[in-house]
Design goal:
Elements lengths: L1 E7 L19 H16 L6 E5 L2 H11 L7 E5 L7 H11 L5 E6 L3 H10 L10 E6 L3 H4 L6 E6 L8
Parallel strand pairs: 1-4, 2-3, 2-4
Antiparallel strand pairs: 1-5, 5-6
Helix pairs in contact: 1-2
């Protein structure tokens, strides 16, 4: 089974108005939510083998807070195309980079991630920050990437995370 996690970056800061959108870092909540989501993915049996990460500061930082939480740290690739990316860019990244991995995390942004989930599964979803859509397909990557009949298992959220 082929499994794809489409996850939005954790909550970012708007405090420094001198930064471009691409440069915005995480805020405190984002730095707490990211490792929590990694632990939740692992607990649900969805630890990724590979992470495809937008090169925006907030997605890089989300991944940095997540990566060490998995039993075995997954390989990660920073991909500029995922910054303003949508389904076409996600598919291209999967086609170019994924070989034998069973579970791949694509970490990026809205509106592209919500649109990708809708196109892949036929289900409209809301992807708030740090939300992760868990999708699967019965076919291998080479055949599944171009399909629009993926199964949406659930959307994981950091809502249940204990606060400090």
């Amino acid at each position: 089974m082929t499994r794809l996690i489409l996850m939005r970056h954790a909550k970012s800061s708007w405090k420094d108005h001198g930064l471009t959108d691409h440069q915005r870092p995480l805020n405190g909540r984002g730095r707490d939510d990211a490792p929590y989501m990694a632990r939740l993915l692992a607990e649900k049996g969805w630890a990724p083998d590979l992470a495809l990460v937008s090169d925006a500061a907030r997605t890089e930082e989300t991944w940095a807070w997540m990566a060490g939480e998995f039993e075995s740290e997954p390989s990660a690739l920073l991909l500029p195309a995922l910054y303003h990316g949508g389904l076409r860019d996600i598919r291209r990244a999967l086609e170019d980079r994924v070989r034998s991995e069973s579970t791949v995390l694509a970490l990026g942004h809205n509106p592209g991630w919500e649109e990708a989930v809708k196109l892949l599964t036929g289900r409209a979803v809301t992807m708030k920050t740090a939300n992760a859509a868990l999708l699967s397909h019965k076919l291998g990557w080479a055949d599944a990437v171009g399909r629009l009949d993926w199964r949406l298992h659930t959307i994981l959220t950091p809502k249940g995370r204990p606060t400090r």
